[in-house]
Amino acid sequence: MATKLNPLKPIRVWLTPPGPNPWKVVFLFEELGLNYEIKSFSFADVKKKPFTDVNPNGRVPAIEDPNTGLTLWESGAIYQYIVELYDTDKRLTHEALNDRHLCNQWLHFQMSGQGPYFGQAGWFQHLHPEKIPSAIERYTAEIKRVLGVLDGALAAAKPAAGDGARWLVGGKMTFADMAFVPWDFRLAEVLLQSWDEVWEGLPHARAWHERMVELPSWKRSMEHRARLMDEQGLQWNGVPKGIETFTEYEEKIARGEQ
Amino acid sequence: MNGDLENSTPLQSMQRIALLGSHLTSTRNKPSHKMAETKSDIHLYTAQTPNGIKVSMLLEELGLPYKVTAIEISKNTQKEPWFLDINPNGRIPALTDTLPDGSPVRLFESGSIMQYLVDRYDTEHKLSYPRGTAEYYEVNSWLFWQMGGLGPMQGQANHFARYAPEKIQYGIDRYQNETRRLYRVMDTQLSKSTSGYLVGDRLTIADIACWGWVAAGSWAGIRMDGLDHLNAWLDKVLTHPGCEKGRHVPSRHTMLDNRNKTEEELDKAAQKTRAWVQQGMKEDAKK
C-alpha cells in the first residue's frame, strides 16, 4: 500500500517507547508504507542534548526528513506534513477543502482535548505517588466526556457503503481517525476499568476503535513498541522488568527509588 | 516518482516541495482563490477567552468582515442544542462560513479555524507562509505546541490556582511549573529570532494562537520575570492594529491589567467565576 511518493532516504522518527504519542506517528508511517527508521532513546534523556537540538520543547515524537532537510515536532504538525507531502493518492485524507479542514478540526481536538486530558488522568491514576481523588475524578470525567463527543459524531456519520463502518469525516478512514488510536488503546489502563466498562454506552466509538486496532499497520506498530520496550528493560505498561504490579512500582516511586 | 527527492540538497528539495505545495494549493483551492477578496460569510461564535480572541485577532488582521455572536459561558450557552449543532464539543470558538459552491462550513477548535482562515483567505501570505515551505510546517509545530501544550497546561494551572473546590498545592505547582517551562521554551525561541516573532520574518497564526494565553499568564499565577523576549513579544504583537482591535472581541480584553495585581486581588477576582465553574462541574458529574 505504498504511496506514489515514497522517500528514498528513510524519515527518522525520534521516540521514547513508553508513551502513546510516538506511536501515532509510527502508525501513520506503517499505514502509508513509508520508508522510515526509528531512533529510540531513554525517556530520561528527553530534555537533554542531542534531542533538545531536534525539539527545543523536549518532547517526543520528532522527525527529521533527510529528503527535504526538514526537522519537525508535535505529532499533529507531523501528521499534517506527512499526509500533505507523501499521501499523494489521498488515501488517508480528502481532496475537498471542507473535508480537509474537518479532518484538521478533529486532529486539533485530539491534540488539545484527548491527549492532554488522558495524559493527566494517567499521571494522577498511576504515576503521582499520592492519591488525589478530586484530580483523578476531574480527568476521568473529562475522558468520558471526550469519548461521548466522539461517539455522538460517529453516530451522526453516514455508514460507509460496503461494510457500514462509520468514520469521522467523509465516509472513510483518515488521519483524523488514526490520531485517536494510541490513547484510546490505553483506556483500560488509564481508567482502571475493564474493556467493557470503558466503552459502556459508547457503541459507535468502540466499534470505530476496534476496527483500527485490527489493522496490520497498528499491529506492526505495537510489535515495534514491544521490541523497543524490551530493549530498555520495560514491560508493556512501562513498569521495569522484575516488578510484578503497578502497586509495587508505585510504592517504589513513592520511596524515591525510580 | 521514487528517487525524485534523492541526491538533491535540502534547499533544492525544499524548493521542489514548495513547487509541489503550490501545485496542490492551486488545484485544490481554485474556487476559493476567486472568492478570497470579494466575499465572505463568516460568523464567529466566541467569548472573551484566550482561545476566543485568537480568531477575532486573526480575522481583524486579515481585514475580513464577520458577524459575531457572543457566547455566555457563565450561562452555558455553549451547551445549548443550537450551538452543539455547530460544535458537538460544546466549547468556543466555533465558526461558520459558506464555500463558493454554497455548501456550509462549520468548524470548531481554534487551531483548525486559524488554519482554515489562512488557507482560504491569506492568499498573499501576510500572516502565513506558502504551503510546502519549511516555515509553513514550522508554524504548524508551534500552533500544535500551543494547542496541545501551552493551552491545556495553563488551563489546568487556572483550574487548580483559581477555580478548584479544594486547594491542592501539588496541582497548582505541577501546572504552574509546566506552564513556566513552556514560557521559557518560547522565550528561547524568540531570543533566536531576528524578527521578534516565533517563525521567520513575520507575525503568523502561531504568534496569535499563543498571545491570549501568555497575556493571561499572571491570571494563572505564572511568574513573568526573566522572560525578556517573551514580554517584548507581548507588546510587539499589539503594534499590529488588527491584533489590538481583535483582542477586544466580543468584550474588552482585561488580562494584561492583572500584571500589576497582587495574589490576594487575583484570588478575590476569581471568586465569582469559581462559584459557577464549580456549579458546572457538579452538573456535569450528574450526567
C-alpha termini separation of chain B: 54 Å
The count of strands of chain B amounts to: 4
Bin the strand percentage of chain B: 5-15%
Largest interface (CB < 8 Å): A-B, 57 and 65 residues
SS class of chain A? alpha+beta
Question: What is the H/E string of chain A?
Answer: EHEHEEHHHHHHHHHH
Rg of chain A, nearest Å? 19 Å
* Shape field of chain A: globular
Low-confidence stretches of chain A: none
Integer tally of domains of chain B: 2
* Number of helices, where a helix is a run of at least 4 consecutive DSSP H or I residues of chain A: 12
- As for the number of domains of chain A, it is 2
Domain GST N-terminal (chain A): 9-90
Domain GST C-terminal (chain A): 96-232
GO molecular function, one term (chain A): glutathione transferase activity
Catalytic activity (chain A): RX + glutathione = an S-substituted glutathione + a halide anion + H(+)
Q: How would you describe what is shown here?
A:
With 258 residues, chain A is of the alpha+beta class. Helix content of chain A is 53%, strand content 7%. In chain A, strands 2-1-3-4 form a 4-stranded mixed beta sheet, covered by helices on one side. The model of chain A has no long low-confidence stretch (mean pLDDT 93). The longest helix of chain B is centred in the middle third of the chain and has 30 residues. A 4-stranded mixed beta sheet of chain B has the order 2-1-3-4, with helices on one face. The termini of chain B are far apart. In chain B, a hairpin with a 5-residue loop joins strand 3 and strand 4.
Short description:
The complex is a heterodimer of chains A (258) and B (287). With 258 residues, chain A is an alpha+beta fold.
Top keywords for this entry?
heterodimer; A: Glutaredoxin; 2 domains; four-stranded mixed beta sheet; B: 287 residues; alpha+beta; Glutaredoxin; disordered N terminus; EC 2.5.1.18 (chain A)
